[in-house]
Amino acid sequence: MPFNGIPNLRDANEPVKLDLEKLKEIKKCALDPIYFIRNYVYINTKDNGMQLFDLYDFQEAAIKRFMKYRFNINKWSRQVGKSTIVRGFILWWGIFHKDQLIAMIGNKLSLAKEQMQQLRDSYSRLPTWLQPGVKLWNKTSIQFSNNSRIIVSSSSPDNIRGFSINLLYLDEFAFLRPNLAAEFIASVMPSISSGKTTRCIITSTPNGMNHFYDMWQTSLELEQAEAEYDKGNNDLYVRSVVTWDKVPGRTEAWANAEKVKIGDQRFRQEYECEFVGSGITLIDYRCLEKLKAVDPLPLDSSIWPPELADIVRDISMRAFKYPEPAGVMEAKGYSYVASIDTSYGMRQDYHVLQIAKVYSNIKCEQVFTMSSNCTEVNDFCRIANIILKFYHNPYLIIEYNGPGKSTYDYFFNTAMYPNILNFDLKCRGLWATPTLKSNVVILLKMYVQRGYIKVYDYDTIMELMTFTQKTQNTWGGGGNTHDDHVTSLYWIVYYLNTTMYYGNYEQIEDLTETELLRLTDEMRSRYADALDFIRSPDAMAEQHKLGAMAEASV
Q1: Which residues is 108 bridged to in the sheet?
Q2: What are 283-313's pLDDT values in tens digits?
Q3: 201 shares a domain with 144
Q4: Domain that holds residue 12
């Protein structure tokens, strides 16, 4: 009797007659996943519906790696069948290995469910004598009579924490939000890595230099992996790259047509598998490739304020340079400037404090960053105030919009902070209008790409990797990523180009020929317009007037 009346789906308790030929065929399939996939696994093709899986050479090579090496990380182009080949391997593994828990994880639950549906379609087309029989069959979980289970989930660590997973598949892992990826890697991956027989397969198209990039950097080329394997070490990730041209029939003409559709940058990332910025990033991908994070300095208790000893663990503090003596700074015409950006609620956007050391209007560097999305606004401000005192009470930029009002109230009324920068006559810090923001991000682009500002913080760099154009005049974190470190940083660049900055001054050079070639026509004109706009007292007065009107309407 079929399982739950579903045609061609053998129930776990349904007997099946096996002759000698079928027994030989089952043995052959059990020993050779490539044979099993080629002869019995049907997949849904775009043009011809369900067809037997005709493996490409690189897909066969992938199956052999999955068999030999426990940990595989695959940087594959779009439209090369990366998830399809892994599904075929997972189906084989679940059928011919008993008591296994196999988890397929997608960055969205809807995508994970689609993976399960396609796997179920392939399983239901196997001959009934090859099926082990089904005990459980739904949209997120199936179980065979050999007690092996295949489950799907979104990439939230809470969804699979506590499961004893034997084979973990992470699909399009590069597109997982950075905060979720960090939590997933910290809470789930150690249990996979510590096992003796557990396995993990990661497939993804690159999406900037994020967590997937970091894992890729520590993985081994196949030759290196073979050498480690011969020594008895099978605990390291082996890497694989498949670009667009590995698919038979794809020509340069096809590639050129695709470049016209999506642009050179996206083609390099999505089809040539290069770790460039995702989407239409604010910062040119050539510059993003050169940004390197620096390890923070240890928070030495003999140097740092003693009040920091009681700081809760939910606040991340990263110092890259200790403060110079105030007298030395003043004699050189140097200064510190800080920007604080607070958010609504808990475990949503981040509160961020950025402090930069300023040498001139076009030379500054990140010296301290603090962030948290698990702390109340007032607690974050209280700790920020301690840090600011340590850096000689630098000028402080507070974006007044939204939760910034309570931040301003804390520093003005509670802390009585002496150096709040007020950009209008109402003494409200800085009210950020859409027009002001759209011009400030252009300045940030110039400062980062020209090296006018040195960025050392890992989280800030990761956000720059995904800081993309949202509409014609707005920018923000792409793919549901955060952008709080970037938005707090660009107000420092803004300050250096206003009349409120009185430090060392250097002339900003015109765009070079190379820079001009790398910009669209629209961006070329916006470079000059952004500087003129921000340096115009009349334009700034108009923006602050609009800000006051916006505040009054809230």
Answers
A1: none
A2: 887 788 788 899 999 888 788 888 776 675 6
A3: yes
A4: 3-18+56-242
